[in-house]
Amino acid sequence: MFKFTKKIGIDLGTANILVFEKGKGIVLQEPSVVAKNKDEDEVLAVGKQAKRMLGRTPGNIVAIRPLKEGVIADFEVTELMLKYFISKVINNSRFFKPTLMICVPVGITGVEKRAVIEAASQVGARKTYLIEEPLAAAIGVGLPVSEPSGSMIIDIGGGTTEIAVISLGGIVVSESLRMGGDRFDEATIRYIKDKYNIIIGEKTAEKIKRNIGAACITETNKQEFEVRGRDLMSGLPKEIVITAKEMVEAYHDCLFNIIDAVRRVLEQTPPELSSDVIDRGIILTGGGSLLQGFDNLLSKRTQIPVFIADNPLTSVAKGTGQALEEIDKLSDMLLSN
Q1: Tens digits of residue pLDDT in 174-230
Q2: 226 bridge partner residues
């Protein structure tokens, strides 16, 4: 029966799930959202279809994001979501019991680890391995993780920011912040409410981030963006224009929380590895790395060159898949059941 086993790598992200299948690459990329009918306890949509329902559903329908800050917040819904995505990859075949490699945050607790493995077991996995997110990202961008030299990587996802210095196949120093792109969206919603007395939804906040989100103002990012929301005083729809400069203000605390964590990791890094990091630079991955000017701001604050990975949105999934293909060589780096 084992000859029918498929090997599947999963980047189980707070905002998006990416699935890597051995021999095929990334075969699925969808939002981590499930829409359910509360009255009937029935799943109505998963992924892209469910995300379109966020903020637009009647009272009896809820759009749920079952992962919070990189870990499982709603076990039952996560299990349903995993079953749905895995069944799409294996075409609902009952003969395939996949071997899974699932990405998790650094410092995941024993309870959180068991929740991920249990969810994988419930969807029919024959064997489940867990790989820490920055290690997967480093493998995905091609850093020499097995060599006796230091590589520093920062992955800014939807729910977490993972910062690590890696050498000889292991994480030497790391920090995991339970904050990421979602926190930037929350900051946008709060800023617009406080300054303009207007309420916007999370989808609008995400759209603002994608269009004019910035970490610092430059000559090329002085854009403006039209925002529609509900006026708190009148209760009526209202349109305003906001600027990239305002987003720099809105994101200030989030950005400097990340920068402070990067500095703490650098302060704890052994001198020989620090020298390697200065030579090689810091690599940014994840959706948050695309925030305009963040690489320049981080470089200025650390005095170290900072580079954005070629494919920052898929680096973790790609690395998870590569780890799955080289499982014997990388076994000492992995957590398993």
Answers
A1: 999 999 999 999 999 999 999 999 999 989 999 999 999 999 987 766 789 999 999
A2: 241
Q: What is the pTM of this model?
A: 0.89
Q: Please, which residues have CB within 8 angstroms of residue 7's CB and are 6 or more apart in sequence?
A: 21, 22, 98, 99, 101, 324, 325
What's the DSSP call for residue 218? -
CB 273 within 8 A of CB 167: yes
CATH, domain range 2-135+316-336: 3.30.420.40
- Which alpha helices (H) appear in 45-178, and where do they start and end? 48-51, 75-90, 110-122, 133-140
Q: Which residues of 97-126 are buried (b: 16+ CB within 10 A; e: fewer)?
A: bbbbbbbbbbebeeeeeebbbebbbebbbb
> Which tens digits make up the pLDDT trace of 23-35?
888 999 999 999 9
Please state, in angstroms and rounded to a whole number, the distance separating the CA atoms of residues 265 and 258: 11
First and final CA of the chain: distance in angstroms? Answer: 20
Question: Helices 75-90 & 110-122, crossing angle to 10 degrees?
Answer: 40
User: Which residues are paired to 284 by β-bridges?
Assistant: 154, 308
Nearest residue to 206 via CA among 177, 182, 180, 225? 182
CATH 3.30.420.40 domain span(s) along the chain: 2-135+316-336, 144-309
CA 290, 45, 183: angle at the middle one, nearest 5?
A: 30
Q: How far apart are CA 70 and CA 181, in angstroms?
A: 11
| Cα–Cα nearest to 140, from 127, 125, 128, 151 | 151
* CATH assignment of 144-309, among 3.90.79.10, 3.90.550.10, 3.30.420.40, 3.40.50.300: 3.30.420.40
Listed residue (110, 69, 141, 151) closest to 319, CA to CA: 141
Q: Where are the beta strands (DSSP E) in 13-66?
A: 16-21, 25-31, 34-37, 42-46, 61-64
